[in-house]
Amino acid sequence: MKAFIILGSRNPKGQTASAAEALIEGLKSGTVQAEKVFLPQKSIGRCRQCNDDGWGICLGEGRCMIDDDFPFLVDKIRQSDIVVFATPVYFADLSESMKAFLDRLRRTTMHDKGKQGIARKAALGICVAGGGGGGAPACSFNLQKILNTCGFNVVDMVEIRRQNLDMKLKILKSTGQWLAKT
Predict the structure, then answer these.
(1) I need a surface site. Which of 38, 124, 170, 176 has the fewest CB within 10 A?
(2) Domains of the chain
(3) Model's pTM, two decimal places?
(4) What DSSP letter does each residue of 145-162 carry, written as one string?
(5) pLDDT tens across 127-167, in order?
């Protein structure tokens, strides 16, 4: 089994990375191969809403015309059995890099060709809030809504606050072990 973990954080030692590592530790209790990528280290342009209707070839062909790392990441998603979307929470929402990536993925999956290898694929969301942590539920809601629109089978959404990080890391490790068995 292959897991692809997409992090919307730029900090490889931060709370979002720690959450992803806990999940990976659990996944590796089985025979899962896990690969992770930090979106801010990739070239991901924001959607240009190419034509006057606000669409482009994404709607007609299920792909994006912007020449960057987006197609490479979509191929990684298609080659995986489960995809994890881990994002820090900024202003009760996804990080800017995660939002840019998912805005384009959501548009390409409006076409059947864009949904190929994505529809019904297992996905897990992780939203990590610093500060008071009150934005995690809103971020989780937004992430799940986008993943559902793309056609993923969302198996879990994990909301984390800075205050409960230690407990949630244990839960993520257990979630990884559970996923490795299914």
Answers:
(1) 170
(2) 2-181 (3.40.50.360)
(3) 0.96
(4) HHHHHHT-EEEEEEEEEG
(5) 999 888 899 999 999 999 999 999 999 999 999 999 999 99
